[in-house]
Structure formats: structure tokens, C-alpha cells
From TrEMBL, chain A:
Location (main, coarse): membrane
InterPro entries per record: AAA+_ATPase, ABC_carbohydrate_import_ATPase, ABC_transporter-like_ATP-bd, ABC_transporter-like_CS, P-loop_NTPase
Subcellular location(s) of the protein: Cell membrane
Protein name: D-xylose ABC transporter ATP-binding protein
An annotated GO cellular component: plasma membrane
Protein source organism: Chloroflexus islandicus
Upper classification of the organism: Bacteria, Bacillati, Chloroflexota, Chloroflexia, Chloroflexales
UniProt topology in membrane: Peripheral membrane protein
PANTHER family: CARBOHYDRATE TRANSPORT ATP-BINDING PROTEIN MG119-RELATED, D-ALLOSE IMPORT ATP-BINDING PROTEIN ALSA-RELATED
UniProtKB/TrEMBL annotation, chain B:
Source organism, top-level taxon: Bacteria
UniProtKB keywords: Cell inner membrane, Cell membrane, Membrane, Transmembrane, Transmembrane helix, Transport
Keyword Ribonucleoprotein: no
TM stretches of this protein: 16-33, 45-64, 71-89, 95-117, 176-196, 221-241, 261-286, 307-326
Protein name in the entry: Autoinducer 2 import system permease protein LsrC
Length: 499, 343
């Protein structure tokens, strides 16, 4: 862009086992430029970041800082060279206060802490970012956005020249993203070079000066934002042209499957009412903290509702545990694959049959493992799960394939109502498209689907109707053609719909 | 590259490497120690593995659910003494009744553990450390400084440790060892082919996923503790048959030996993976090393505990280091580009 690059990666390659994670990648970061990096999972973005921050060493290639070759042997060296990274989930010391977290990396300032000086300097740095945050407040209980701000302040305290932001917005609400971008623009004005990684294209096109696309460890394209279109970027990432992001068929049937009236749970949400028809996708939109997941958990009996009624196929039901929910044909695919959904040391087959084990008993009450294998193989084919065998541990699979195992597990319960909670978070573009196709297919089979997603374009594209929540309250329900980004966002942010 | 490495599960690798280590140890000891590969050594090891192995089966069930039972030594001692004194008082008691009595006694003690852990939500390590002391106290009170002696027992009990079921070359297989092998076979099967077994793995490897799948976690954990108690009770009966002379300190230290067998046998202390066969092999290897090193280096019995401790640490270290390393090797060819761990 202008002047000399602060950091230049020249012809960097790196292998892991038989995987060529990076193959001859060259990249220049200029001061005062936001450089966005796009690519599917496994494209090599993380490897590049890890080489920049000294976690990995390149097999070949050169790193130049201010035109001079450098070797980055550790994260500490990277920090000393002015290269820092912040991540989606910041690493905080929860019992230390904000100022201590900012200055945690400053060793060798003598054995005593000059508290007054530390607080003054911490406040000065935060003021530089135009952020109001009590520096004496413990980090515990800070929002993810505030924690990221602390991480940025920490990087600034170390005289950062290259700031790497790896999916910083994934856990932020729209408002918080705006605040973060304000900070990014301020840093850019101060001459910091920023490498910005995100799966959200709108954000990338909002903030970036230059957009670079990686695929399979190679640099595919790199151009100023003005010269790149969204379609072009997606084509470069996927390596194939994508005509339409989400094709949807109209499959809504007349039969109202689930009727929910005035559902609520003390301290979480209240007054939620909706119908879902067979073959319908009902989207749940809202910002972080809208309590959409709590509604899903109430329907599935994990955190049962204490107000309101649920009617399934005309029958009023009470759901107080997952077993009852499953008996009524409800399945819940949780957002957190590792934490809530899958048993990583267990095989694909054992994970898939876990909620339905009773189906696989022979007359002696013993498990028919060949039958389990058959079921798992069927799902492996149907959902294209990439694994050498269904006996492989789920922990060895990639995120997208784990997500498919999750889906298989719950589809195998043969649900009438499928609740999908953030089904595409953290999986790559290709896997995402497959999940979308699957949602469409399932709806066509007559399954009612509740789709909880923070990805607004996804909700809008996939849903027949969109229910918008904000802080535990239902704000609006839009039909597919009423639901525009502006109206949904306005409702989610508390603006009553004018129309 | 789609070879056995991808098909094998980590616990199978662990079991094979245990067999390998056992063979190596046998070769070294047989070469270095005169008369090591004798019927006597075999008998000593199998008699001792019979007891520890039986306890280790139950310990495996409990550890699979991310819990631990430290009270098993006290349960073994209590049951051995209690059944011994009943047999001494009623020599006409049928053998089956004696075994049932032992299993029920152990089961009752296990039930207490299980209720406190599963329904009282007290961590297992605290609960069973407490009951370790309490059960031992009950035994001391009950025994009142008396000893059960071989002479007071019906002869069929003592004969169990001397009879030969069949021989392999010079090696005689005793009933005690055969009973434990049978129990291992049964529970290996239970873990692989029953809903209960699958639930143990599921609850241990991811309690939240188990909850979402609607599994009855509390009941399953309770059942694991009850079974662990029953197996420890059975081991108490084997203990009685092997030694005949039972005092109030009977079974002390078995908790450490069973945990060592389970951990060396590849049962993950964070739950979710491992087999009872592995635990039996672990018990076998530990006892073999104990016997061998004692005779080879002429070290004292007191080194045994240190050896156990060392083996536990080695096993846990190799678990995290070697298995982690193996997993990375596996992951690379099977799933390209996942190494950089994006997303």
C-alpha cells in the first residue's frame, strides 16, 4: 500500500506429517493497514499465525521485519519484536484486575509493583483506545468483548506493531463488533499493521483494506478491497463458483406440529409463543444474550420451563427431562460439540447410537454391534462423514465432521422437531453448505426445525419464518419475505418494528 | 496409509504393549534369575493377581465414570473377616451361600459409597477416603483383636488355593485364578455389549453429552460403585481362601494396587476409555515386576509400594505423552490439514 512493509513473510512453507499446511506463501503487512485473511478451515491461516507468533517454525522461507531477516523462536520473542495476537476466547487471569492483566507480560521491572503507576498507565492505554473500563475491576465477569479490549491494551503496552486478530468477533454481539471495529480503526490510524481473520464476510468487507484468500496452504488471491467482490472471495476460498449460498425449497405443510404459548423460565426468558409446522424451518434470531438457547433447552427438558404450555401434535405435554423430550420426538443438537454433544474418546458408531441404545438390543438384552455399525455407516454415507471407519474415535475428526456425527446422532432418534443450536459455528464454508443442504432436505422430509443461529444471513436464508428475541423476550416473528436484515436487527436491538 | 494404525483403538495398543512388556519382563527375569520360570513363581503371581485383579475389575468400572474407589482394601478386609467368622461359626454353610454372603456384604458397602457420591454429590476421592477409614474401623471393632485361623475354617475353603483345575506344562491353574479370569471375561463382555457398559464410557468421557442423551447418570454411577463393592467382596472371599489367617489389617494396600493395575492397564483416569482386560494385564505386569525385582535385586518388600507409585506415574505420563503423540500421527494422514487446528 504505502511505504515499506513492517512484516514480510517470504515463500513460507511448513509441513505437518503428510500434510502440507503452507506451501510457498508470501505476504506483506504494511503499517496502518487492515489486512484480512480468508480461507476455509485447514487453508493454512492458523499455521501462518502460529509461525508469525513463534509457536511454529517454518520449514523454509524467510521472515523479514523492517526488511531485516528475523527468526521468531517463541511467543516471547514475537512479543519483543512487536507481534501480538488476540483470539476469539481471550486468555485472562480471572482473579487479577484489568490493570494487572494488561501488564502481566512486563517482567523485569523490579520486584515491587508500583500500583499507582500501573493504574495510571493502564488508564492511559485504555483512554488511547477510547474505552471506559475500570482498571481495578477483576477480569472475572468481564464480557468477551471487554476481555478482548484488555488483550488489545496488553498488546499496546508492549508497543505492538503487528496485531493479529484471529476470529475476534465470533463471540461478540453486533454492537460489540462495532465497538471493536472502532478500536481497530483507531489502531490503524496509529500505524499498527493488523492481520484480521474472520469467517464473517460482511465484517471482512467492512473493515479490511486488503483481502487475501488462502486455500489448501496456498495464497490464491490478494487484492485491495475495492477490487474484490463477495462472490469472487467465496469462489477463491471454495475453489469453485457458488451461485447461491443457500438454496431453499418451500416444504411447509399445514399440520401445526408444535404450539408454544407464553413459555418462560424464571430468570431466563418469558412470554415466548410460536407455532412450528411440519416441514418448516423457524429461525431464532437475536444478539448474544438474547436467551434463544434457553428456549431450546426448555423444549428439550434440560432446563425445563416453569411457565406456559407446550402442545405437540394437539396434545398438551410437560417436558421436564431430555428423555421425555425424546419420547415426544424432540431432538436438540447443541452448539458446543465438545462440551455438550460428543464423547470424544468414543467411536463414531457409539456416539451416534448413544441416545437410542435400546433399539440395538437383541432378545438377550445385549447390544447388536453390527447393527450399530450399519446405522453409523448409513449416516456416514448420507452425511458424507469423512473418516476411515465408523470405529474411529470422534476426537480424531475435524470440526465439520464432528458436527455431522452430532447431527447423525440426533437424526437417528427420528425426531419430529429438530432444534439446531448454532449448527455451523466454527466449521468451514464447505461443511457449512452441506449442513444447509441437509436442513433443507430434512424439512422436505417433514421434520419441523428450529434453527438458532447468530449468523444473520444464515437465519434469513434458511428460515421460513424468523422469531427475533432480545434479552429473554420475544420481539417479533417475521415471515420469510418480511424478514430483512434491517428489520431483524432493529427488532433484536430493541426497536419496535414500524411496519 | 490406511493401515492398522487407524483401525486400532488406543486401548488395544495399550493392551498389546502390556503383553509385550510382560513377555520382555519374563524373558529378562527368566534369563537373569535362576528358576524364575517355575511353577512356584507362576503360582505366586496368579494367586496374588487373582485377588488384585478381581478388585481391579470393579475399580475399572468406577474409574470409567471419572470416579475412584479408595475403600476397596477395607471392603476386602471386612468381607474376608466377616465371611471367615461366619464360616467358622457355621462350618456347614454351603459354599454358594458363603460366596453370596461375601458379594452381598461388599455390595452393601459399595452401595453406601455410591449413594454418597452419586446422590450426595460428594467427590468420590473424599467419600471413599472417608469410608476407607470407617469400614476399617468397623472391622477392627468387629474383630476385637481376634484372628480367624486356617484351622477354624471348613477345609473346602482352604483347598481352593491348592487345588488344580488344569495344568499347562508345569503350571497349575488354581480355582482362585480361574474365578478371576471368568469374572474378567464376563465384565469385558458387559462393557462391550451391554447398555450399562456403554453408559459407563459415555458418562465418564462426557457427562454433559450423557445428560443430553438422556442417560441416567446418577443411577449408573451408583451401580458402578455397588458392582465395585460386590467384586471387592468377592475378592475378600478369595483373600480368605488364599490366606486362611485373617486379622483386622487384611486387605490393606489393595486400594493402591488396584488403582495401579487400572492405570497401568490403560484405563483413562478422566474416564471414558479402558477395559478390564487391560486392568488384569496391568495387575499381572505389576506383580511380575514386583516378584522379579524382589528376587533379582534382592530388595526388600517395602520397595513394592514405591514400585507401585513409580508405575502409576509412568503409566499416566506415558498416557498423556505417548498417546497424544500417537493420536497426532494418526490424525495427519486421515484428516488432511486438520493439524494446524483452525476454527
Amino acid at each position: 500500500m504505502q511505504g515499506a512493509p513492517v512484516l514480510e513473510m517470504r515463500d513460507i512453507s511448513r509441513r505437518f506429517g503428510s500434510t502440507q499446511a503452507l506451501a510457498g506463501v508470501s505476504l506483506r503487512l504494511y503499517p496502518g493497514e487492515v489486512h484480512a485473511l480468508l480461507g476455509e478451515n485447514g487453508a493454512g491461516k492458523s499455521t501462518l499465525i502460529k509461525i508469525m507468533t513463534g509457536v511454529h517454525q517454518p520449514d523454509s522461507g524467510q521472515i523479514l521485519l523492517d526488511g531485516r531477516p528475523v527468526r521468531i523462536g517463541s511467543t516471547l520473542e514475537a512479543q519483543r519484536l512487536g507481534i501480538a495476537a488476540i483470539y476469539q476466547e481471550p486468555l485472562m487471569y480471572p482473579d487479577l484486575n484489568v490493570a494487572e492483566n494488561i501488564f502481566i507480560a512486563h517482567a523485569g521491572r523490579g520486584p515491587l509493583v508500583d500500583w499507582g503507576k500501573m493504574y495510571r498507565e493502564a488508564e492511559a492505554i485504555l483512554a488511547q483506545l477510547d474505552v471506559r473500563l475500570d482498571v481495578r475491576q477483576p477480569a472475572r465477569g468481564l464480557s468477551v468483548a471487554a476481555q478482548q479490549t484488555v488483550e488489545i491494551a496488553k498488546a499496546l503496552s508492549l508497543q505492538v506493531r503487528v496485531l493479529i486478530m484471529d476470529e475476534p468477533t465470533a463471540a461478540l454481539s453486533a454492537h460489540e463488533v462495532e465497538q471493536l471495529f472502532a478500536i481497530v480503526r483507531r489502531l490503524r490510524a496509529q500505524g499498527v499493521a493488523i492481520l484480521f481473520i474472520s469467517h464473517r464476510l460482511e465484517e471482512v468487507f467492512d473493515i479490511a483494506d486488503r483481502i487475501t484468500v488462502f486455500r489448501d496452504g496456498r495464497l490464491i488471491s490478494s487484492a485491495p478491497r475495492a477490487d474484490v467482490t463477495v462472490e469472487q472471495a467465496i469462489r477463491d476460498m471454495a475453489g469453485r463458483s457458488v451461485e447461491q449460498l443457500f438454496p431453499r425449497r418451500h416444504t411447509v405443510r399445514d399440520e401445526v406440529l408444535v404450539q408454544v404459548r407464553d413459555l418462560g423460565r424464571q430468570g431466563a426468558f418469558h412470554g415466548v409463543s410460536f407455532d412450528v409446522r411440519a416441514g418448516e424451518v423457524l429461525g431464532f434470531a437475536g444478539l448474544v444474550g438474547a436467551r434463544r438457547t434457553d428456549v431450546g433447552l426448555a423444549l428439550f427438558g434440560i432446563a425445563p420451563a416453569d411457565q406456559g404450555t407446550i402442545t405437540i401434535a394437539g396434545q398438551p405435554v410437560r417436558i421436564t427431562n431430555p428423555r421425555q423430550a425424546m419420547r415426544h420426538g424432540i431432538a436438540y443438537v447443541s452448539e458446543d460439540r465438545r462440551g455438550l454433544g460428543l464423547s470424544l474418546p468414543m467411536s463414531i458408531a457409539a456416539n451416534i447410537t448413544l441416545p437410542t441404545l435400546r433399539r440395538y438390543l437383541n432378545p438377550l438384552g445385549l447390544l447388536r454391534r453390527p447393527a450399530e455399525t450399519d446405522t453409523a455407516e448409513e449416516f456416514r454415507r448420507r452425511l458424507a462423514i469423512r473418516a476411515p471407519s465408523v470405529e474411529v474415535e470422534v476426537g480424531k475428526l475435524s470440526g465439520g465432521n464432528q458436527q455431522k456425527v452430532m447431527l447423525s446422532k440426533w437424526l437417528n432418534t427420528r425426531p419430529r422437531l429438530l432444534i439446531l443450536d448454532e449448527p455451523t459455528r466454527g466449521i468451514d464454508v464447505g461443511a457449512k453448505a452441506e449442513v444447509h443442504q441437509m436442513i433443507d432436505d430434512l424439512a422436505a422430509e417433514g421434520i419441523a426445525i428450529i434453527l438458532i443461529s447468530s449468523d444473520l444471513p444464515e437465519v434469513l436464508a434458511m428460515s421460513d419464518r424468523v422469531l427475533v428475541m432480545r434479552e429473554g423476550r420475544q420481539m417479533a416473528v417475521f415471515t420469510r419475505h418480511e424478514a430483512t436484515q434491517e428489520r431483524v436487527l432493529a427488532a433484536a436491538m430493541g426497536q419496535r418494528d414500524a411496519a | 496409509m490406511h493401515t492398522w494404525r487407524q483401525r486400532m483403538r488406543p486401548e488395544q495398543i495399550r493392551e498389546l504393549s502390556l503383553v509385550g512388556l510382560i513377555v520382555i519382563a519374563l524373558l529378562i527375569f527368566g534369563w537373569q534369575i535362576e528358576n524364575f520360570l517355575s511353577a512356584r513363581t507362576f503360582n505366586r503371581i496368579t494367586s496374588s493377581v487373582a485377588i488384585v485383579g478381581m478388585v481391579a475389575i470393579g475399580q475399572t468400572l468406577v474409574v470409567l465414570t471419572r470416579n475412584i474407589d479408595l475403600s476397596v482394601g477395607s471392603i476386602v478386609g471386612f468381607t474376608a473377616y466377616f465371611v471367615g467368622s461366619q464360616l467358622a461359626a457355621n462350618p456347614g454353610l454351603p459354599p454358594v451361600m458363603a460366596v453370596v454372603l461375601a458379594v452381598l456384604t461388599g455390595g452393601a458397602l459399595g452401595l453406601v459409597n455410591g449413594l454418597i457420591v452419586a446422590y450426595g454429590r460428594v467427590p468420590a476421592i473424599i467419600t471413599t477416603l472417608g469410608t476407607l477409614a470407617i469400614y476399617r474401623m468397623l472391622l477392627i471393632n468387629y474383630a476385637n483383636a481376634r484372628t480367624i485361623t486356617v484351622d477354624s475354617l471348613p477345609s473346602w475353603v482352604v483347598e481352593l488355593s491348592r487345588q488344580t483345575i488344569f495344568t499347562i506344562g508345569d503350571f497349575a491353574v488354581r480355582p482362585l485364578f480361574a474365578i478371576t479370569i471368568a469374572a474378567v471375561v464376563v465384565f469385558q463382555f458387559v462393557l462391550a455389549y451391554t447398555v450399562f457398559g456403554r453408559r459407563l464410557y459415555a458418562i465418564g468421557s462426557n457427562p454433559e453429552a450423557a445428560r443430553f442423551a438422556g442417560l441416567p447418570a446418577q443411577r449408573t454411577v451408583l451401580a458402578a460403585f455397588v458392582l465395585c463393592g460386590m467384586l471387592a467382596g468377592m475378592a475378600g472371599f478369595l483373600f480368605l481362601a488364599r490366606f486362611g489367617n485373617i486379622t483386622a489389617v487384611a486387605g490393606q494396600g489393595i486400594e493402591l494396587e488396584s488403582v495401579a493395575a487400572v492405570v497401568v492397564g490403560g484405563v483413562n483416569t478422566f474416564g471414558g476409555s479402558g477395559t478390564v482386560l487391560g486392568a488384569l494385564l496391568g495387575a499381572f505386569l505389576i506383580d511380575l515386576l514386583g516378584q522379579g525385582l524382589l528376587r533379582w535385586l534382592g530388595i526388600s518388600e517395602f520397595w513394592r509400594d514405591a514400585l507401585l507409585g513409580l508405575l502409576i506415574l509412568l503409566a499416566v505420563a506415558s498416557d498423556s505423552v505417548i498417546l497424544g503423540w500417537l493420536r497426532r500421527i494418526w490424525a495427519a494422514p486421515a484428516l488432511r490439514a486438520e493439524v494446524s487446528n483452525e476454527g
